[in-house]
């Protein structure tokens, strides 16, 4: 589907009552195709964001354009190809990058929870671009936009970058939900997804909470991300009634050479195998929907590594468009709107 149609269609619904407030679910973004040129375009936009890479330009730009993009695009395109979703045979839904497909479906599920609002999905990088989505909404008569970044834990590298785009939008009143790492409905939705997975596959496995990593430098500069990841994991473990030695927290998806948050998921799995742990369930509650980092890195690569050490890793999918997820996000949005209206 062309990007413009994807942006316009939810707000063009002529059966809906006039709605001057919109809820925009914002995710990171993903390439349009599992090809090297598409991945290169996406990575280039992402890695030019000064919130993500803070190196000075004269150091970073030659490295990015001459080394990282040429080498990484082809390699990462193959990874995307391994998880790309096909179009439905009956034409019922489009395929695409899992992050894009699940984010759109989640927005539709939240729309059903909040019929009085317009609910749309947008991406910080790639399509449908957040900046353009805001312009389209404004042109359609929307006056107020609540942005809900699909990052349960706040980081300047992700959430604040969404805030930058909102700050640049003209002619709209905007607000943003900063985080929902401890929100009760969301904690319960994650806990319930783990419970139902364990009801099906057995409850004995060690539970590993794997969050996306971040350079340690960000945390040293005051980023609350790691603290919020710890608080989310502890709250979910408590909700499940897990003993302290039945779960572990780790950070995945390291990028580049500097020090990132520790322990790394890969090292933690190696240490668990070493300790004789044979069954591990991995859940990734920092990701609202499944994406490259969960489906390829965890469910494929890390699962293979763990199997090679004689163990079995079972990946618990993200909440995606589960009703409990849509319900929790709707409650978070509703509370933010109530506060806004005073
Ligand atoms: C969930 C929170 C995320 C944080 C925090 C985050 C920080 C961060 N990421 C990079 C570099 C890359 N991340 C990539 C993919 C990616 N990252 C997140 C989420 C967070 N990133 C998601 C949901 C995804 C998946 C996108 C998809 O299409 O499925 C990538 C691209 C893939 C690759 O080349 O390996 C990069 C690069 C940095 C540098 C960073 C903090 C500074
Ligand atoms: Fe550049
Ligand atoms: Fe990332």
UniProtKB/TrEMBL annotation:
Membrane spanning stretches: none
Reactions it catalyzes: heme b + 2 H(+) = protoporphyrin IX + Fe(2+); Fe-coproporphyrin III + 2 H(+) = coproporphyrin III + Fe(2+)
Pathway recorded for this protein: Porphyrin-containing compound metabolism; protoheme biosynthesis; protoheme from protoporphyrin-IX: step 1/1
Pfam families noted in UniProt: Ferrochelatase
Record key words, sorted: Cytoplasm, Heme biosynthesis, Iron, Lyase, Metal-binding, Porphyrin biosynthesis
CDD domains listed in its UniProt record: Ferrochelatase_C (cd00419), Ferrochelatase_N (cd03411)
Xref: InterPro entries: Ferrochelatase (IPR001015), Ferrochelatase_AS (IPR019772), Ferrochelatase_C (IPR033644), Ferrochelatase_N (IPR033659)
Function (record text): Catalyzes the ferrous insertion into protoporphyrin IX.
Entries under NCBIfam families matching the protein: hemH
UniProt cross-references to HAMAP family, sorted A to Z: Ferrochelatase
Name of the protein this chain belongs to: Ferrochelatase
Source species taxonomy: Bacteria, Pseudomonadati, Pseudomonadota, Gammaproteobacteria, Lysobacterales
């Amino acid at each position: 589907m062309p990007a413009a149609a994807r942006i316009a269609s939810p707000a063009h619904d002529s059966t809906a009552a006039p709605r001057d407030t919109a809820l925009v679910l914002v995710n990171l973004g993903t390439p349009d195709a599992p090809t090297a040129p598409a991945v290169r375009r996406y990575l280039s936009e992402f890695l030019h964001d000064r919130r993500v890479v803070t190196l000075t330009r004269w150091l970073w730009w030659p490295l990015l354009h001459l080394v990282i993009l040429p080498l990484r695009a082809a390699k990462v395109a193959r990874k995307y190809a391994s998880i790309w979703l096909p179009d439905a045979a009956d034409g019922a839904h489009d395929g695409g990058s899992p992050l894009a497909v699940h984010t759109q479906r989640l927005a539709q599920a939240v729309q059903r929870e909040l019929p009085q609002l317009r609910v749309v999905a947008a991406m910080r990088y790639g399509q449908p671009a957040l900046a353009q989505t805001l312009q389209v909404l404004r042109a359609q008569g929307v006056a107020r936009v609540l942005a809900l970044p699909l990052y349960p834990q706040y980081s300047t590298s992700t959430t604040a970058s969404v805030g930058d785009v909102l700050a640049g939008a003209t002619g709209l009143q905007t607000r943003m939900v900063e985080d929902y790492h401890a929100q009760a409905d969301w904690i319960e939705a994650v806990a319930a997804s783990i419970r139902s997975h364990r009801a099906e596959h057995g409850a004995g496995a060690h539970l590993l909470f794997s969050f996306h990593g971040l350079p340690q430098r960000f945390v040293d500069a005051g980023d609350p991300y790691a603290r919020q990841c710890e608080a989310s994991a502890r709250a979910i473990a408590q909700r499940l009634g897990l003993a302290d030695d039945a779960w572990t927290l780790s950070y995945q998806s390291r990028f580049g050479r500097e020090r990132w948050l520790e322990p790394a998921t890969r090292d933690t799995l190696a240490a668990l195998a070493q300790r004789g742990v044979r069954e591990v369930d991995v859940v990734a509650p920092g990701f609202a929907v499944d994406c490259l980092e969960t489906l390829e890195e965890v469910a494929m690569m890390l699962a293979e590594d763990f199997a090679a050490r004689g163990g079995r890793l079972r990946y618990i999918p993200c909440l995606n468009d589960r009703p409990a997820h849509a319900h929790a996000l709707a409650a978070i949005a509703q509370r933010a709107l109530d506060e806004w209206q005073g």
